User: What shape does this take?
Amino acid sequence: MSEKFILVGKSLKEIEEFMLNNEQSKFRAKQIYNWLYLKSVKDIDSITDLSLSTRELLKQKTELCSISIKEKQISKDGTMKFLFELKDGNFAEAVLMRFDNRANLTACISTQVGCPMGCSFCATAKLGFVRNLDTDEIIQQIFLIQADTGLKVTNIVYMGQGEPLLNFDNLINSIKIFREQFQVGARRITVSTCGIIPQINKLAELDFQSTLAISLHAPNQEKRAEIMPVAKKYKFDELISTLKKYTEKTGRRVTVEYVLMKDVNDSINDAKELALSILKLKSNVNLIVYNQNEKSPYKKPTKEAIQKFKYILEASGKKVTIRLERGADIDAACGQLSSKMKK
Ligand code: SF4
Assistant: This one.
């Protein structure tokens, strides 16, 4: 039997072609397109303005998604974690969070199965690298979250499993689809990288208008190389100067992500050194409190250390936010749920 045509992820033109090839009118394609991207319809039968025979045809020859929700966990704070099963039996994860502003719903999605970057504090790194997700698999994470919850995702962060810039074409394609088809504004999309310099330059050439977040996590080369192997290839100073050029070219401020870990990178000296390193980089800082778990040797910093760290950066003129631990009672740190499934 031939493979079914997967609908979610397809452009209007592709759906039109499919409909024409199946002796259906082009007009029907637009109806399907709207149900997919504006209403995140749960199943074909819910597309009520299509005739019974068209729905039957769609059920025979198409599928909404190639991935499915395997497991969902809901935290006391409302954070939801989704584990998706892919067609080849692999898994990918996404997290849905609601921050203080009740109107905003942020989904954190994955771009790879596992990750090759090996950051020492990251659960995903322990899975190793399996493969890149294709564009459809990236798109379908948001579609399924919306279909499952009935809610509209307003902000998308590429901060789940994997290094997005190592899956560059699918990253750029998926952003295009989120913007054009899901109607999520460019400024509401954030891509987080551990610092792949040639790809940051590529984003600059594209005049990238979404937010670039850089997972810095250390104030200097030595400390960074200890916890992030990527720093051995792409050095700290070269990364900062690449980011400076990026901000000049795009006119966009970057977000410096810094996960605070007790006695690793949370001292007053670390804060001072970080402030100096990024002083001339047009940036905001997002401090992330380490999501402590029993399998990791790293610990959460004290409240006092977090406040001091923040104060020092603010005194240097940076706008600093602290990302609170979300979903502490579920496996919300990326990779935690997948590692359980892998066992
Ligand atoms: S922190 Fe990000 S880049 Fe580093 S290993 Fe984990 S998923 Fe990969």
In short: The chain has a mean pLDDT of 92. Residues 115, 117-119, 122, 124-125, 161-163, 194, 334 surround iron/sulfur cluster (CB under 6 Å).
